[in-house]
Amino acid sequence: MCFPFDRDVHAELKTIAEEKELTLTDTLRKLVEQHKRDRMFEQSDRAYRRLREDSDAWDEIEAERQEIEGTRAEGFIARP
After folding, report:
1. Could you tell me how far CA 47 lies from the centroid of its own chain?
2. How many other C-beta atoms are found inside a 10 Å radius of the C-beta of residue 27?
3. Spatial distance between the Cα atoms of 37 and 5, rounded to a whole number of angstroms
4. Core-most of 20, 27, 30, 69, by most CB within 10 Å?
């Protein structure tokens, strides 16, 4: 399968591939994987921010967190 790339994009991809000693395909695969990870973290950050803005929900989360930490301190939850 062949994808038409703009010459500048191809040149940049080739430079990255050479620097990392990877094929163009593996380089593109790694860039896509990194993009997916970045997108997941951005979505998680937005969800966290929305949670922080809802004081009732945040208080509930904090109460659960304190309960879990208290349980750990009592030795009921094994630490990894």
Report:
1. 13
2. 19
3. 24
4. 27
Residue 67 identity: E
**In sequence order, what are the residues at sequence separation of 6 or more whose Cβ sits closer than 8 angstroms to the Cβ of residue 49?**
none
* Tokens representing residue 67 in the block: 């309960």
Both tokens assigned to 10? 């191809």
Spell out the domain ranges in the chain.
Answer: 7-53
Let me know: does 13 contact 24? Beta carbons within 8 Å: yes
Phi-psi label, residue 23: left if phi above 0, alpha if psi -120 to 50, beta otherwise: beta
- Alpha helices, H only, 1-80: 7-20, 24-53, 55-73
